[in-house]
Amino acid sequence: MESTRRLMEMLIFSALLLVEAAHCSQGQFAHKLLNDLMENYSSALRPVDDTDKSLNVTLQVTLSQIKDMDERNQVLIAYLWIRQTWHDAHLKWSKEEYDGLEVIRIPSSLVWRPDLVLYNKADDDFSGPVDTNVVLRYNGEITWDTPAITKSSCVVDVSYFPFDSQQCNLTFGSWTYNGNQVDIAMGMDSGDLSDFVENVEWECHGMPATKNVIMYGCCSDPYPDITYTLLLQRRSSFYIFNLLLPCFLISFLAPLGFYLPADSGEKVSLGVTVLLALTVFQMMVAESMPPSENVPLIGKYYIATMTMVTASTALTIFIMNIHFCGAEAKPVPYWAKVLIIDYMSKIFFVYEVGESCASPFGQMEESESFHGQNHKKKLHPKEKAKGAPPTCCPDDDKSAAFTLTFDPCVYCGCRGSSGILSCDPKLVRNVEYIASCFREQKATCLKVAEWKKVAKVMDRIFMWIFFIMVFLMSILIIGKAP
Ligand SMILES: *[C@@H]1O[C@H](CO)[C@@H](O)[C@H](O)[C@H]1NC(C)=O
Ligand SMILES: *[C@@H]1O[C@H](CO)[C@@H](O)[C@H](O)[C@H]1NC(C)=O
Ligand SMILES: *[C@@H]1O[C@H](CO)[C@@H](O)[C@H](O)[C@H]1NC(C)=O
């Protein structure tokens, strides 16, 4: 029992030692292998046995992150992992000679590397490739993974901003070798998105790859490249909440300017304030967009809204003029009376709100009439105290035969004690004059009221027209959203 256990322990111990020794020898073999491989190796020359044959490089790009999309400068900054695989004819060994060593990892600067570059690079940094290790297999296969932050130029078409989608090309190709020397192949038919970190602004809809072979006119050599097309769709909710909704809300205020009573004196300033607010938003958008010819959708919407607000403000000014048509103005033309006051006001539900002349003048008309035949010659001008009933002829104890109310005065005709009308022609003339004054004033007031009513009806018409316009424009812009 004891002995077998001892034997077992010894066996395990010796086995462990062997493993250790093997490790040791593998380290030595790796050292020897590297020396042997590098003895006559030059990293400057294309490693092929037959120089007429092309060297095949397989390219695989993994998109890790979209760091930034600069619409204004038309630059896409992306974080990529680039894997290149090729066969080096001079870096082969037989596993048996080196104790079964299959793979070694050596600095990439020691071996020949294909000079694949991003053609549409938009970077001012022209430093060389990153010196990461390469994985070298015994059959000469080299796998080289490099991380890269690429700045690539990308034609950004913002016509449909913020509902736009973009296509950004990443074109890789050899800088100096032509297709007969170094040929590029695609690892997969699209970029790898399995490790993609979602971007807050852009949704990635794939990254298909295509191989293009370009024959330049001068030389008949083909120049292959691989183009990855990054399909991006903008997440528009941020812009909807920050740029579109405020504009909707503000633009709905503009038609309400027509509803504002003219006497408040705020009609024009409301329009101008709305215009200013829209300008701020428009500038915000304009700052982030490239100054290109195709105006973004949202810019068009702003321009349309601003045009509308400008028109509404201008119209408000005209209507204000109509509203304040004074006594000097001509009376409202008959057709306008029929069309606007009679029909339109009913269509647009414009009702009188206590601004008619009927109430104060109606009373006056009654009191204006003469009662009986006994009138005193004198007419007392008297200040009319607001609210208090007109005190008539305080000097005389008699009741008033008639009163004339001239804002702000009350004229009273009082019955004399004698009860006999001493009809003075002068008095009659004066009374007639006063009466005609009243009539004139009443007519003027009616005229003013009519113009005001015309203005009000027009205000209401334009309010609805502009409401419909704002609504239609909003529908139009939402309709463009996918
Ligand atoms: C390297 O080159 C030398 C001289 O040209 C030659 O003697 C030697 O055998 C070569 N070594 C290998 C591993 O090919
Ligand atoms: C490269 O690939 C092409 C076909 O794609 C093949 O004909 C050629 O032999 C390959 N070259 C080498 C060196 O393997
Ligand atoms: C991007 O590459 C694809 C495929 O090569 C090509 O059809 C397309 O025109 C390119 N787009 C731009 C903007 O260059």
From TrEMBL:
What does the record say about its membrane topology? Multi-pass membrane protein
The principal location of this protein is: membrane
Q: Does the keyword Glycoprotein apply?
A: yes
Per the UniProt record, the source organism is Cyprinus carpio carpio
This protein is called Cholinergic receptor, nicotinic, alpha 9b
Q: Name one GO cellular component term.
A: postsynaptic membrane
Localization of this protein: Postsynaptic cell membrane
InterPro entries from the xrefs?
A: Neur_chan_lig-bd, Neur_chan_lig-bd_sf, Neur_channel, Neuro-gated_channel_TM_sf, Neuro_actylchol_rec, Neurotrans-gated_channel_TM, Neurotransmitter_ion_chnl_CS, Nicotinic_acetylcholine_rcpt
Q: Where is the Neurotransmitter-gated ion-channel ligand-binding domain?
A: 31-235
Which terms are listed as keywords in the entry? Cell membrane, Disulfide bond, Glycoprotein, Ion channel, Ion transport, Ligand-gated ion channel, Membrane, Postsynaptic cell membrane, Receptor, Signal, Synapse, Transmembrane, Transmembrane helix, Transport
